[in-house]
Amino acid sequence: MPRLSDKQKRWNSSELIEVFIYLNSNFNQWYENPYEACNKAMKATSVSRATNAIYSKVYKMIRAMEDYLETGKRQACDIMWKDQLIHDLVYRIHIKIKERKAREENEEAIKRKNLSDRILELDVKMKPENTNNQMTGAEATTSSANQINTEVPQLPFSLDTIDRIPNEHILKTECHARELAACLRKPIDFGYKEVRDLTEKITHRQNELKILIEEANDKVERLKNFNA
User: Fold this and answer.
1) Residue 149 pLDDT
2) Model pTM?
3) Do residues 166 and 202 make contact, with C-beta atoms less than 8 angstroms apart?
């Protein structure tokens, strides 16, 4: 008489109880790698079925429980509705999955918010410094105009200095973004986009500062020639 395959063999209560007890006790294994968890369950129990068969049965039963809780309709897996212990074991693993997903989503939302807050904080810190640098150039120009008949000072402005200050902040901003990205499990493309936008703003303000400094230095040169 030919031997029945795993798909044809009817599952009995003791097999399912053993498998679900193992999976509940080793839930992290199931959550991280369901197929491997079923393979270990096969080795740890007396269930003489292939890993594929165990995984398929477990997955269908958990899915049937989810559908029942959402719609109130019982579908396949009749044994789950007849055996209270099997029902409870399937329900427990369903709840664990649901709680784990909710916790991960909450943690991810907190990480994303913290990332956004840190990027905004960097943006706020950059604005006063750039504003101060712009005011310095404007004040120097006004002061030079008021001192036509006095000694003209040496050129006090350096484009190298203006290049160095924003570039240091750009590097710090990108470094923070990389450090935060390494802590996150999921992609954070939105975070890198905000960093790129911030970098573009810094570069734009840097160019504006260069223009102001060049104008101020040009006026100082003209004042020198005027007094010569």
Assistant:
1) 44
2) 0.50
3) yes
